[in-house]
TrEMBL record:
Pfam families: RNase_HII (PF01351)
Catalytic activity, as annotated: Endonucleolytic cleavage to 5'-phosphomonoester
EC nos: 3.1.26.4
InterPro entries attached to this UniProt entry: RNase_HII, RNase_HII/HIII, RNase_HII/HIII_dom, RNaseH-like_sf, RNaseH_sf
Alphabetical keyword list: Cytoplasm, Endonuclease, Hydrolase, Manganese, Metal-binding, Nuclease
Residue ranges crossing the lipid bilayer per the database entry: none
Classification via SUPFAM superfamilies: Ribonuclease H-like
Record-listed a divalent metal cation binding positions: D25, E26, D126
Gene Ontology MF terms in the entry: RNA-DNA hybrid ribonuclease activity
Protein name: Ribonuclease
Length: 219
């Protein structure tokens, strides 16, 4: 299989009309347990002239042993980055799509606290649907792009930064509840995870509103 290397072609085009690009990508949408995370990475005209870090890809294409290193170099490469979260309780209360929007708004708020003005940016969102605006965001320009995490280097950076953050959190939760083997499956619907749910039931970190036991594997 040919691996597509992300580029900055779209970002450079968008930066002709906007002072900054904020690329966003989610991690954990299909998991049965744990929060959803949204990474946000800021690209400026100066940053778009810098060399893309070696090995930067959509997080799903980066081998797990290399992800932390790639994420660290991605975070150093972009002008700023943040990760926003929505908990399993919030997912149960408001649904996964609104939770994704809420997590994105929190990531953008973190960027704002570090001097980034999201309203000045165009928000490059991986996927085909703007889930940010319906969650209550005001004054943002959002551009959904299918496969942005594969094709756009800033979105790949957001993806791998969020992936490493969420995997680290799930590994920590594994120490609290090792029966579910979250250090390995990260809360997704692996066979061992579903078997543990059948044996022990769900924990406070599971998405209780989901039909968990019979959910197909969603890696």
């Amino acid at each position: 299989m040919t691996v597509v290397e992300p580029r900055l072609t779209l970002e450079r085009r968008l930066l002709r009309d906007h002072p900054i690009v904020i690329a966003c990508d989610e991690v954990g949408r299909g998991a049965l347990a744990g929060p959803v995370a949204v990474g946000a990475a800021v690209m400026t005209p100066a940053g778009a002239r810098r060399r893309i870090p070696a090995g930067l890809r959509d997080s799903k294409l980066v081998p797990e042993p290399k992800r932390a290193d790639v994420a660290a170099r991605a975070a150093a490469w972009v002008s700023a980055s943040a990760v926003g979260w929505a908990s399993s309780v919030e997912i149960d209360e408001i649904g996964i799509m609104r939770a994704l929007g809420l997590a994105t708004i929190r990531a953008l708020a973190d960027l704002r606290a570090h001097g980034v003005i999201p309203e000045d940016a165009i928000v490059l969102l991986d996927g085909n649907y703007d889930y940010i605006t319906p969650a209550g965001a005001v004054g943002l320009t959002v551009k959904p792009v299918i496969k942005a995490d594969r094709d756009c280097a800033s979105a790949a950076a957001a993806s791998v930064i969020a992936k490493v953050a969420r995997d680290t959190l799930m590994t920590g939760l594994h120490d609290e509840l090792p029966a579910y083997n979250w250090a390995s499956n990260k809360g997704y619907a692996s066979p061992d995870h579903r078997e543990a749910i059948r044996t022990y039931g769900i924990s406070r970190h599971h998405r209780a509103s989901w039909s968990i036991v019979d959910t197909p594997t969603l890696f």
